[in-house]
Automatic annotation (TrEMBL):
Keywords carried by this UniProt record: S-adenosyl-L-methionine
Domain TsaA-like, residue spans: 5-136
Name of protein: tRNA (N6-threonylcarbamoyladenosine(37)-N6)-methyltransferase TrmO
Family named by the database record: Belongs to the tRNA methyltransferase O family.
Pfam families with a match to the protein in the record: TrmO_N
NCBIfam families assigned to the protein according to its UniProt record, in alphabetical order: tRNA_TsaA
Membrane-spanning parts: none
């Protein structure tokens, strides 16, 4: 099987290096800008009615692949890559949930960005709690269950 993923835009942020970026949007207070390429602008129709979006993007600066990593929140305890959101993944696909500030033409302005500047955007999806969460009280977060505050970076 062969498949192709197209870049549909570019994510802009104040973070130029990996060490500058927060580990997740929850730990960010910075705004960002998502430029959707003109040929995909029509796909933004009706998005302004949503407060949050899920961004899928390509970790363009992550060169290495690791199946066992030492996450920021527990650097002394190695974890499997699929039990983390770390960037050294086999397919280098990242995910962030951001709050929409406003949409102008083909630009989405967001709050709480955690993505590096000029990151290739591969998809946008609206966050819909009714669809995205079932039995939210039963959601488990594995090794992160005792983590309540921002990790020391």
């Amino acid at each position: 099987m062969h498949f192709e993923i197209k870049q549909i835009g570019t994510i802009y942020s104040p973070f130029k290096k990996m060490e500058e970026a927060p580990i997740q949007p929850r730990f960010s207070d910075k705004p960002g800008k998502i430029e959707v390429f003109p040929e995909y602008k029509e796909g933004l129709k009706d998005l302004e009615g949503f407060s949050h979006i899920i961004l899928l993007y390509y970790f363009h600066l992550a060169k290495e692949e690791q199946l066992i990593i030492r996450p920021f929140m527990e650097p002394d305890k190695p974890k499997g890559i699929f039990a983390t959101r770390y960037n050294k993944r086999p397919n280098k696909i990242g995910l962030s949930i951001c709050e929409i500030d406003k949409i102008e033409n083909n630009i989405i302005y967001v709050k709480y960005i955690d993505v590096l500047d000029q990151t290739p955007l591969i998809d946008i999806k609206p966050l819909v709690p009714l669809f995205d969460f079932r039995n939210i009280e039963k959601i488990k977060v594995g090794w992160l269950s005792n983590k309540k505050e921002r990790p020391k970076q």
